[in-house]
Amino acid sequence: MRILVADDDELSAEILIASLRAMSHEVVFASNGSEAWRMLQVEPFRLVILDWVMPEMDGMEVCRNIRAMHANSYTYIILLTGRTDRKDRLEALEGGADDFLTKPLDNGELVARLNVANRILETEEAVRRTNRELQQARQKEIELGATIQKRLLYSPPPRTTNAIESASLSIPSQYVDGDFCDFFAHGDKIVDVFVGDVMGKGVPAAMVGAGVKTGLQRCMISLLTHATHPGLPSPERLLQSLDDLVCAELIDLGTFLTLCYARFDSSDDSLTYVNCGHPKIVLWDSLSGVCRLLDTTNVPLGFSDTESYEQRTGNLHAGDLILFYSDGVTDLKLPNGKRLGMNGFADWVESRAHLPLDEFLWEVEQLRMGGLTGILAGDDFTCVAIRYRGSEIVRDKYLNLWADSGSLRKVRDFVKSSARSSAIGFTEPEITELLLAVQEAASNAVRHARPGQKGIPIKAMASAEQGTFVVELRYPGIPFDIKEVPEPVLDGTKEGGFGISIIKKCVDTVEYSFQGDHNLVTLKKQPKGSGI
Amino acid sequence: MAISIEIVHSGKAVVLKVQADSLETDNVAAFRAAITPLLDKSAHFVIDLSDVEFMDSTGLGSMLSCLRIVKSKGGSLRLCSLTAEVQQLFEMVMMDRVFEIFDTPESALAK
Asked: Complex ipTM, two decimals?
């Protein structure tokens, strides 16, 4: 063993060192306490033999310094002393000494004391090794839990379905927890999205989350194939069935979870949801541009085994933004020290809801970075954003859509197919004119009706009435006065200003009006040579 | 909407082919970003619009912007292979008088 010996008495030190070396120990010598302390700060020694009485820094002080050091391994300290009275020895033990050697040195005693030291250090090393292994095993378990969570618990809805477009952000806490998210797609018109959060953290919470998620899938299958009431179960019926399955067990386990289950149905533009104690859904209405919070309907699962589940239903418009999020979002602290809260989050969302989903979630991430303090670093942070697009599916004679610059092609395609399938015999150049007019009117709406915003809900209607083809575009936002538009410059010196002029040249009449809460653009065109 | 511009001929004049089926509000920013650095490569250009089936006023604006950049350097810009739909737009706002328009890249280069 490598041993540090500190003694200012050279003769006594020489005897001790010779004895230790004779027992095959490696010895490093310090001629006083300060020197020994300097050496100990550079490299740790498992065993230190200190003379009690030394100039500058005595053995007791070195001893106390070692104990205050918080080293990685234990240092066994033997004090060399001529003192034998009880009080002194008690003081030394309290100061951190492990044992004593009495001067003058007895070789037999030295061997015995070193054997004790060796036994204790070996035991200490074994305990340390076991602890390290336990810690590694625990770390592995945490990593496994994180994988469970990622793979089994977090399955956000697909990026696009016919009914919705979605994107999600999940920044896991440094602990494993029971946050989960999943979806059911029923055909191409209905999508169910649900998010949940199990009380507590760690692998147990993750496993409860996985269990409940599986339970919900089981309930769905069982209700879908129910002998007397087959067909798609309502969210409240599904939750009731889940409650029957898991509530008693949750109560037994002494845990509970919040769960929000929402159904997007594009066949009737509805949102039906049950919210059991989860943060309130934020719904941004694309027509009014206003956010509201949808009330919770029930207590968390596992609170009561007599709960009766109640669903709420509301209307959706193309472009509505629906947000599910964890309390990590609402717990964010603002620069002024206040908690963001659900209302604060809804206010924050209102001015950003028009953004494409990826850009929106990037902003949410920046919000987190900006609001992050040491206290919050451990909070899980998830946000699932849904853009409702359901009614883009053309029905009858209209198309409802969330129009950003990328979706104007859909308006053109709708008008093109309506014009071609109508009884009006337009020539191809006439159809080109119609599409140009529609494009300019719709692009004008996207760019100017809500300044600075990247999208707007548009309802497009197309119909043929007595030989005239009529296209109507309805959208919210600032009214537009066509009379204020100057004539375009046609000599090539101006790059813009052609839009309205193109519309006027392409259709027979164009009218802009404001209908109380929305703009209406009416374009009318007849085929040439129709004589009407 | 993705857009790319292919340099199909590089001689005295550079022929740039717009590879997109439309040039409109949706992709006009991407078009400007893609074409601007190419306009430093020469003084004389032909833009081949044979793939572009639809162009709106913002697309037209970006064409005028290219024309202005090239002319400010004393160069020239010609357009070729316009689809019927795009030709119709140019005639409607009389841009067929502002741009030199040719049927094929070869005829644009020949003159």
From this structure: 0.93
